[in-house]
Amino acid sequence: MAIDAVRAVADEGKCCILDIELQVLEERLRNRGTESEDAIQARLKAAKEELAYAAEEGSHDKVIVNDDLDTAYEQFRKFIVDCN
């Protein structure tokens, strides 16, 4: 399960970066033409589970909304520097 992988990364003291937008993920998977419908649905289900986990209080050390590139980059850069 993808959530277990995220927890394992965090348990190792590493920073985990997630970028999940279901509509974009589905478009990418369909445009590749390499995934069966069952595989696409399985990937979308896993992504939905990751989003549910992400919504849990305390599941992440930092949430950055990329609605302004310069601001998001600065927040990301500062977070990475602080992690190390």
Gist of the model:
The protein has 84 residues and is mainly alpha-helical.
Chain-wise SSE layout:
Layout: H1 2-11, H2 22-32, H3 37-54, H4 69-83
Helix pairs in contact: 2-3
Strand content: under 5%
Strand element count: 0
Largest beta-sheet characterization:
none
Percent helix? 55-70%
Please work out how many helical segments DSSP would assign.
Answer: 4
Q: What general form does the structure show?
A: globular
SSE topology string: HHHH
Low-confidence parts, pLDDT < 50 over ≥5 residues?
none
Termini gap:
27 Å
Mean pLDDT over the residues? 84
Would you tell me the structural class of the helices and strands?
A: mainly alpha
Radius of gyration: 15 Å
Structure description:
Helix 2 packs antiparallel against helix 3. It contains four helices and no strands. It has a domain of 58 residues. It is globular. 64% of the residues lie in helices and 0% in strands. The protein has 84 residues and is mostly helical.
Q: What descriptors fit this protein?
A:
84 residues, mainly alpha, globular
